[in-house]
Amino acid sequence: MASPDMRVVVVGATGNLGTSIVKTLGMDPSIGSVLGLARRLPQWSPPKTGWASVDIADESADLTTQFAGADAVIHLAWLFQPTHHPTTTWRTNVLGSVRVFDAAAEAGVPTLVYASFVGAYSPGPKDHAVDESWPTHGWPEAALCREKAYLERVLDTFERDHPAMRVVRMRPGFMFKAEAACEQHRLFRGPLVPKRLTRPERMPAFPDIPGMRYQALHTDDAAAAFCQAMLRDVRGAFNLAAEPVVDAAMLAELFGGRTVSVPGWPVRAAVSAAWRAHLLRTPPELFDAILHFPVMDTSRAMRELDWAPTYTVQETLQEWLRGLREGAAVPTAPLASATGSAA
Q1: pTM here?
Q2: CA–CA separation, 71 vs 2, rounded Å?
Q3: Paired sense of beta strands 129-130 and 205-208, if any
Q4: What is the per-residue pLDDT across 125-176, written as a single tens digit (0 to 9) for each?
């Protein structure tokens, strides 16, 4: 049983997953206080939560002091952009994460929960699910996957060197909620593409591309699993996803369109051209990676965390679309509603 004055530090607390985790912790009677770390302080005051401005990419940042006395650190901070400058994302995502791990050990934090991703996995099957023992070498051409896979190796060594610390790696699929819709649209759409043109309900047909099957879940469901992993005496990795697996047929049924079978190469070529022209922020290497993501088995999370998604994928995507239409937001820098963009 967790102590009622448990102190938790959430690194990267103002984004999609961070805001859901902070809210979940604030409602838990076993949590005494939450310290949210972010580069830019929010205009948001959830229960039990205080804030500090920290950039984990800054070598002079004093993370050890922020972690002193914490019962757990949940590390979420991650840069998805700029995809045209991978050294920038590497500086935050990899080197910054290593600083977080080392500072947690130096401060004597007993529990570290880290947000990995399905993209850390090596290419795998689409017709049956794999468990957490599947290799985590990622898709090397995609920066997101390369960085997540690299940190899996870092944590292998870290756990060996710090056996007294309980380390948990959460590997969710894509996470969506209404309040993150505008941010996610900005991150992947590109500034010159009108938002109305990329809404799924406006698409008359969905390309059925071989291998384009991936998993998703509601961000609040992911947050619940993260918090249970922090509170329970568990270690290792946990896959997180909801049903069903996303594919063209599911999207067509959900949004009233139809499917059209197309090979992957012309779509990939279009994505590549749009990315190089800065019309789209999604790099072609990430398109390639998604074609190779394995389908994950989530039974360990259900069994050991007593966790199950409360939203289906269809419900999650419908909520996300509503959030995009209504400009849903949280008063944090990442999740503020878009302004000044083409509508």
Answers
A1: 0.93
A2: 10
A3: unpaired
A4: 999 999 999 999 999 999 999 999 999 999 999 999 999 999 999 999 999 9
